[in-house]
Amino acid sequence: MAELGRKSVEEFKASAKTPIILVLENIRSAYNVGSVFRTSDAFLVQAIYIIGYSAKPPHKEIKKTALGAEETVSWKYFKTTEEAIEELRQEGFNVYAAEQAEGSFKLNAIGFDPDEKIAVVFGNEVTGVEQSTIALCDGCLEIPQLGMKHSLNIATAAGVVLWELVRGIVGVESRAEA
């Protein structure tokens, strides 16, 4: 790990985090939740908020895909998305749904302020983000897609969104030096 320049668990926990919180709303696959933990670790995400019937640590399937990231990334469970969004607003976060919707913002065309605290809600693998949740958000972020399919697995979508946000907000080079 040292040769790869990887942080220890203690170093990770002490590191400055990217001001992004991912909200997982009723994700049915614990493997997807684990994958989001692993990706969140890679981008030093501030936290993951787990909602409803989404699996939460400790969980065998999360552990299998997170590969230890469930021990490094902070997380919190909420019964409802409304409770999570209320807390996010109190902490100064702008909240977006990762969803294709009328008036959505194309992810690659958005410019966020580097100081903006951003939360992104990812929805169920089949039904997406609940309409009632979308109504509580500041807007929807849409990943441009060029093929026949117009949806991505939630873990893949989280990776794409995180890369674009981290790249645009803090820059990978400046974060790596921190």
| Major sheet attributes | 7 strands, parallel
In helices, the fraction of residues equals 25-40%
Summed over residues and divided by their number, the pLDDT gives a mean of 90
Q: Helix tally?
A: 8
Please give the CATH class.
Answer: Alpha Beta
Tell how many strands the DSSP assignment holds: 7
CATH fold-level name = Alpha/beta knot
What is the count of distinct domains? Answer: 1
Order of the strands making up the biggest sheet: 3-2-1-6-4-7-5
Distance between the first and last residues' Cα: 18 Å
| SSE topology string | HEHEHHEHEEEHEHH
Unreliable stretches covering 5 or more consecutive residues? 172-178
| Class of secondary structure makeup | alpha/beta
Taken from the alpha-carbon principal axes, the silhouette is globular
Fourth-level CATH superfamily: SPOUT methyltransferase, trefoil knot domain
Give me the CATH architecture, please. Answer: 3-Layer(aba) Sandwich
Rg for CA atoms:
15 Å
Portion of residues in beta strands equals 15-25%
Quick structural summary:
About 35% of the residues lie in helices and about 20% in strands. The chain has helices spanning about 10-15, 30-40, 60-65, 70, 80-90, 130-135, 155-170, 170-175, and strands at about 20-25, 45-50, 75-80, 95-100, 105, 120, 140. Helix 2 links the parallel strand 1 and strand 2 (about 45-50).
